[in-house]
C-alpha cells in the first residue's frame, strides 16, 4: 500500500500527467529520455523530464519549510507545464500568499541581438516553430488542470522588455529556461537581485547550451557569486542563494 499522503499523491499524479508518463507508450517515446528530459513530448505539457520536475518540487518544498519569502517564476515556459506544477503545489498545500509568474514571449525565441550579445551569434533557435506556443494555449493548459486563477500572473513579451518593470517584489524560486545568452542574462540581471536569501535559482539548459552556461558564468563572476552549482541531470543545474 502506498505511504503517500493525499497531497503527495495529487502532486505525483500531476507530474505524471504534465510529463505524459502515463500514456507515454501512445507517443512511442523512450521512458529513459522522458526521465532525463531529452525529448519533446507530443502530448505532454513539459519537456523538462522527471529529474528536473522533482528538483522543482524539492526547491519549492524547501522554501516553504524554511519560510523563505517570495513568489515562483519561470522564464521560458513552452506549454506551461512547470508553471502548472508550481501552481498545483501551492494549491495542494493551501498556500495563498505566493504568486506564480509565467514569463514568455509566447511566440518563440528572439532573433540574436549580435550588437549587444555577440555570444548568440549563429543561434537559430528563433526559427524553431515547435517553441512557439501562444499565451491562449498556455492559459488553456492551466485551465485543463483547474489551476488558472488569480495566483497565476502572465508576463508576455521579450524578457528585456517585461522583466525590468514586472511588479515582482520577492522571489523564492526562479526557474530560468531562456536557452540563449541574451535571454539567460536578461533573466539573471532582472530577477536575481529579487531572489531572497535561501531561495533557489534553477538553470534549465546549462549542461547542453554553451550560450546559456556562459551567461551564468559571466553573471556569477561579475557579482562574485560563489554558491556551488549543483547538477540535476545532464542538462539542468541549480544553486541556493546564501546572500
TrEMBL record:
Family: Belongs to the methyltransferase TylF/MycF family.
Molecular function per GO: metal ion binding; methyltransferase activity
GO biological process: antibiotic biosynthetic process; methylation
Annotated organism of origin: Paenibacillus xerothermodurans
Source organism superkingdom: Bacteria
UniProt xrefs under InterPro entries: SAM-dependent_MTases_sf, TylF_MeTrfase
Cross-referenced Gene3D superfamilies: Vaccinia Virus protein VP39
UniProt KW keywords: Magnesium, Metal-binding, Methyltransferase, S-adenosyl-L-methionine, Transferase
Protein name: Macrocin O-methyltransferase
